[in-house]
Amino acid sequence: MSFISEEELKGRASFNLAPMIDFLFLMLMFFACLAITRATTKDTEIDLVEIRPDSHSTITDADTDIKVVNVSITREGSYKWVTDLQDYPMASAEAIGNELLLQYNQGLLPEDRLQTQVLLKIDREAHWESIMKALFAIRDAGFEARPVYEPETLTDNLASQMW
């Protein structure tokens, strides 16, 4: 004679889903972060210029408080303000300068304008006129523009020397 019935001693045959759901949630968050990071580092509509790497053109790690603004120029000469989540088409190069000034006046950009880097992702087929308009508009707003490029690979360098 027992004080506890046999049914209570056996326990229930059930499967605990809580750890599996937690794991799946963590995996979902990991891949969501990975997808957003991948989307911000690649702009698929432009084909960057390749140049030979120069030892004097490296950016030091001392520039840690720098705000980065990404602007792309497509082969048709249209402008886009590239953010983490979405690309915003800009009507003209002057609109880029106006947006920089607007964000500076709202306090979204650092007080020192030299701590704001405007990175220009320029398609290799883009017209020089649209590139120069963007450079002058950014400079007129008081900011410094830096073109983004892909370093020329060793095989491309050897192939160009052979021909």
Mean pLDDT: 80
- What would you call the structural class? alpha/beta
Order of helices and strands: HHEEEEHEHEEH
Largest sheet entry: 5 strands, mixed
Provide the β-strand percentage band. 15-25%
**Low-confidence parts:** none
Calculate the terminal CA-CA distance, rounded to whole Å.
97 Å
Helix proportion range: 25-40%
Q: Whole-number radius of gyration?
A: 26 Å
Number of helix segments?
A: 5
Tally the beta strands: 7
Order of strands in the sheet with most strands: 4-3-2-5-6
Oligomer: single chain
Shape: elongated
Present the secondary structure layout.
Blueprint: H1 6-10, H2 18-41, E1 50-51, E2 67-73, E3 79-82, E4 87-90, H3 93-105, E5 116-122, H4 128-140, E6 144-148, E7 150-151, H5 154-162
Helix pairs in contact: 3-4
Describe the 3D structure.
- 39% of the residues lie in helices and 19% in strands.
- It is of the alpha/beta class.
- Strands 4-3-2-5-6 form a five-stranded mixed sheet. It has a two-stranded parallel ribbon with strand order 1-7.
- Helix 3 runs parallel beside helix 4.
- It is elongated, with a radius of gyration of 26 Å.
